[in-house]
């Protein structure tokens, strides 16, 4: 008969370790379990702490969390009891404590990821900045006809961004 009550994650991991003799499979199973645990923990944490924290390990009923620096460690310590009770009720009834450690590499990785995201957003916006529709270009050219010299030149340059079909030489006069 199948047990229908929740089982401690550590027991499940121990059981899987005893069944397999292949070290690589063992490491892979442990890594998958930590990744799943990391997802659960991140869902329980406030949004501002999520990118600065990750589950590093789970051993002997103690979960090890890594944070980017001491200030995030302090913030996470305020959430520690809530996190501990939520994890005990949801997936880890045998969890005895949470150990929080500082890992400065987390802040570096977060900065690298955010700079990469900003660069990709900038390249997307740069590509999209120079595209206007033909109808908009025609309206800009009509505005340029009734505008003073300096403004007229600017409207014509904007209209030229729509493409070669709508430049100042091709407009109806």
From TrEMBL:
InterPro entries found in the cross-reference section: DciA-like (IPR007922)
Entry protein name: DUF721 domain-containing protein
Organism: Providencia rustigianii DSM 4541
């Amino acid at each position: 008969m199948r047990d229908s009550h929740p089982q401690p994650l550590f027991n499940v991991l121990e059981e899987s370790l005893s069944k397999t003799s292949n070290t690589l499979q063992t490491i892979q199973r442990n890594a998958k379990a930590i990744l799943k645990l990391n997802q659960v923990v991140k869902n329980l944490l406030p949004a501002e702490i999520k990118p600065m924290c990750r589950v590093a390990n789970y051993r002997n009923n103690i979960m090890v969390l890594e944070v980017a620096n001491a200030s995030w460690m302090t913030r996470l310590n305020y959430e520690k009891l809530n996190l501990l009770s939520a994890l005990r009720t949801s997936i880890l009834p045998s969890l005895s404590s949470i150990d929080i450690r500082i890992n400065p590499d987390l802040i570096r990785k977060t900065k690298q990821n955010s700079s990469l995201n900003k660069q990709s957003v900038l390249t997307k916006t740069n590509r999209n900045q120079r595209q206007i529709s033909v109808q908009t270009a025609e309206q800009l050219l009509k505005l340029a006809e009734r505008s003073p010299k300096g403004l007229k030149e600017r409207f014509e340059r904007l209209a030229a961004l729509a493409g070669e079909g709508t430049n100042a030489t091709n407009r109806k006069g």
